[in-house]
Design brief:
With 484 residues, the protein is of the alpha/beta class. The protein contains 16 helices and 18 strands.
């Protein structure tokens, strides 16, 4: 498919919208008129001082529309393109014109300007978001506000990356490495040693700047791929490096049930961890084998009850809507089984076909039927979780997601994951340690944000550790530039 950009600067939004409607198409961007189109579909977008134009040409003929450019040419172009693509495909994305990661953040901004009703009208009438998704954004925004009020100018969070897993899931595109390979296993001891050192140095920087640690999150990968002794090394490093007296939450992803043992859970509890994630993704054993997970539904149950026995009163469970070969009925049974276990959080993700995943490499593609099925799955989850006392509190969206749908965290009262909201809404600094981690610096009294990227892969992290630590000098420099 070819996208022609003629006399306008709105390439980003037009390209994003085209990918929503045609997620499997290879897209070629041309500024001006494309030559040698062959049998490819061509979407022409053009503008004058007063008008915007869209023409869709394929084997079925030509569909052409125009509209007034108005005061917001980008919005006018996106709206016209949306209408043309909607007419051509018969498909109406639930999120309308929105292609960004944080719809609830946009809703909160509009709510401050226009009030709740005005924000909802803008979502539905101007951005063409469905009433269902508008209500979701509003509900999430309201719960986020209560958590965001906890953050202070000197607040910060800590993210610790453990980029190792037992095996690589078929949908995964993260930089994590499977410790089933000898080369990856050999990296783990040195990685843990250097990560503990980075935590120590990061804690000293936080202390020098007078930052107040509010939440800690160990993610990955799968942190519980590490041994109990290795976990204790890192938990100890955090205790020694940071003042934990203001800590509100301490999360470790024990995401793969086959990595969970009573010994590791006891180590986490003794180390101050208050919250764990135990993630089935699905309770259908056949689908688990399809996506290359090594655990079973029964193992998920055992891991969950072991976490309860270890004293965890705050447990999250992840499910994924749209997994290959999973029916709507099977997904609904997984939701019901998760609800029956009664965790405090259930996070419902939508399958995303990332470029580096095995699914994508194997040629998996989305279609309207799978998008419709995923939408039904999310609708059931929202209804069943609402009936069980869970409310949506956290949401984000990814590119190349089935049906252009969302990932939503649901919680029972008082059990919101603070880190998820702090990180997603960019309300304070997130210090990050480990391979693939990104430190996100937030100006204490402003909106300025700066990022410091660590090396992605464990072997790069180990080889480039000295350079990585040099990058940390940008943290005090950032605060100094903002008057701290």
């Amino acid at each position: 498919m070819i996208l022609e950009i003629r006399d306008h600067p709105y390439q980003y939004e037009t390209e994003k919208l085209l990918r929503v409607f045609f997620p499997n198409e290879k897209l070629r961007i041309v500024h001006g008129e494309a030559a040698d189109c062959g049998e490819q579909a061509v979407v022409t977008t053009a503008a004058t001082d007063t008008q915007v134009f869209v023409r869709f040409t394929d084997k079925n003929g030509v569909l052409e529309e125009s509209a007034a450019r108005g005061d917001d040419g980008e919005l006018a172009m996106a709206t016209l393109l949306f209408r043309v693509l909607q007419s051509r495909t018969g498909y109406t994305p639930k999120w309308g014109l929105l292609t960004g990661v944080r719809p609830s953040k946009l809703f909160l901004t509009l709510e401050r300007e226009r009030g709740t009703d005005g924000a909802k009208r803008y979502f539905t009438e101007t951005l063409l978001v469905s009433p269902e998704k508008t209500e979701l954004a509003s509900s999430v925004g309201a719960r986020e506000q209560a958590v965001l009020s906890l953050s202070r100018p000197e607040s910060c969070s800590l993210y610790v990356s453990i980029p190792f897993c037992p095996t690589r899931c078929s949908y995964c595109s993260f930089v994590s490495q499977a410790v089933s390979t000898p080369s990856a296993r050999r990296l783990v001891p040195e990685y843990v040693r250097l990560l503990a050192r980075e935590i120590k140095e990061t804690g000293q920087i936080a202390k020098d700047l007078g930052l107040r640690l509010e939440s800690v999150y160990f993610g990955g990968g799968t942190p519980t791929t590490l041994s109990a002794e290795q976990l204790e090394t890192l938990l100890s490093a955090v205790r020694k490096a940071f003042d934990l007296s203001h800590l509100r939450e301490y999360t470790v992803e024990a995401g793969r049930p086959d990595t969970v043992t009573p010994e590791k859970l006891q180590t986490l509890r003794a180390g101050g961890v208050t919250r764990v994630s135990i993630n089935p993704q699905t309770f259908n054993d056949e689908i688990l084998r399809t996506i290359r997970r090594q655990h079973t539904a029964e193992m998920t149950d055992r891991a969950f009850f072991a976490a309860r026995a270890a004293g965890f009163a705050d447990i999250n469970m992840d499910l994924i809507a749209g997994l290959p070969n999973e029916s709507v009925a099977s997904f609904c049974r997984s939701v019901d089984r998760a609800v029956a276990l009664a965790p405090e959080n259930i996070t419902v993700h939508t399958l995303s076909l990332k470029r580096a995943s095995t699914l994508t490499a194997d040629g998996t593609q989305f279609d309207k039927e799978s998008a419709q099925a995923a939408d039904e799955m999310l609708h059931y989850a929202a209804s069943a979780l609402g009936a069980a006392g869970f409310n949506p509190y956290y949401m984000y969206r990814q590119s190349k997601t089935l049906g252009n749908l969302e990932n939503t965290g649901y919680t029972t009262a008082g059990h919101e994951c603070l880190y998820n909201i702090f990180m997603m809404e960019e309300c304070h600094t997130v210090l990050a340690a480990g391979a693939g981690a990104v430190t996100k610096l937030k100006a204490p009294h402003g909106a300025d944000i700066s990022r410091i990227f660590n090396y992605k892969y464990p072997y790069e992290y180990i080889a480039g550790f000295a350079e990585l630590m040099e990058r940390k000098r940008a943290i005090p420099a950032f605060y100094e530039a903002h008057g701290i």
